[in-house]
Amino acid sequence: AQSVERGDDGVLSVGGVGVADIAREFGTPAYVVDEADFRSRARSFKQTYDEVFADLCSGADVFYAGKAFLCTEVARWIHQEGLHLDVCTGGELAVAIRAGVPGERIGMHGNNKSVAEIRAALEHGVSRIVIDSFDEIERVSAVAAELGVVAPVLIRVTVGVEAHTHEFIATAHEDQKFGLSLSGGHAFEAARLVLERPGTLRLLGLHTHIGSQIFDTAGFEVSAHRALGLHTRIAKELGHAMPELDLGGGFGIAYTTEHDPLPPRQLALQMAAIVERECRADGVPVPRISIEPGRAIAGPSTFTLYEVGTVKPVDLDGGASRAYVSVDGGMSDNVRTALYDANYSCTLANRASDAEPVLARVVGRHCESGDIVVKDEFLPSDITAGDLIAVPGTGAYCRALSSQYNHTPRPPVLAVRDGVARVIVRRETIDDLLALDV
Ligand code: LLP
Prior knowledge:
Blueprint lengths: L3 E3 L5 E3 L2 E2 H8 L3 E5 H18 L1 H4 L3 E5 L6 H9 L3 E4 L2 H9 L7 E3 L6 H9 L4 E4 L2 H14 L3 E8 L21 E2 L4 H10 L5 E7 L9 H22 L5 E3 L17 H19 L5 E4 L3 H4 L3 E14 L5 E7 L8 H5 L6 E2 L8 E7 L8 E9 L7 E5 L20 E5 L2 E6 L4 H5 L4
Ligand LLP binds next to helix 11 and helix 12.
């Protein structure tokens, strides 16, 4: 986060609040969000895309992908900063509604939305429902008929791009569950079927999303190019010029020094060039562009603060050794290392140390050996129980994917701004866990 600093005493602070004070007041583990940083990333996406697409399609819409991290307060920030919100379940929709986000600022995704979720979305007047299958054409149409509304829909297109990222989070190659195939003709057929139902469905446009944590802009370019090809074909062969085109999210962030973040402006310029060139060449009106970043807004704004409980030296083959540093959280609050082999870094947060750095592994308190938070990091050799460790870049898909594994209450989310830390999601308690048992 932008406002993280280390004082002369070595204590890390964020938004003007020291981590030792945060730990004392709110306990650990805790997710700590730099509110100004979160807001400025959101705002800058919107400004950048508005600027770059100003002449082409009078600006662009940025749908924050709530799946990365959502709570009522964050939904408010997104709305206040002028962004739209992408929800993919009735639960995320409920958060958006509670936060006061109007329907016209919400889009709904999901590859198997229930009738109840579609109904809730249409009742709230969402600005788009993204159709992900032939079944859904019927389902959304039926709910719209029941409510007496015309549902604005996009069609999610599988563009056949192999995104270079972990296979679990690549979404545009053919053999996976999302979208309707472009090359197989399914997406075109879906457009035809949607256009046959003008009383209940309005075809706004196509949607593509090739995956997540992507650094190579070539994948986005190929995807946009193919989507625009279909966009034109639908205009020409079905006589329907669609007013919108969603290019999805997936913009990679730096978790360690291994990567540089994908610069939003550069990608926006590349996208605008493709959209302009192809629409001109094909003689179709330029659709209004939207994108759906989640990780790139939420991820870098947050770190997780843990307290060290034990430090254990373990001898490795070849005579080296590694310090196993156990913290008071783990795979229940950050499963990404175990699930995607993700790389994180960390730092000693509560003091300075001149001790020699040693190879360390930060592990959690759960009952399996894969419960690793940071695989490899150099930490001062005098690290000890009671020290605080900060793991940066945990704002996206950590709290969102968290669990209560081993009956572990989930950590709170704290927002820090202008020298004040406050709870925006409270810590779970053992009573919360027991409350569901009948
Ligand atoms: N739009 C759609 C349709 C998506 O499915 C996603 C992410 C996004 C936008 C936002 O992608 P982002 O900009 O955040 O990369 N749990 C995994 C990531 C799963 C991404 C799911 N879809 C992880 O922790 O890496």
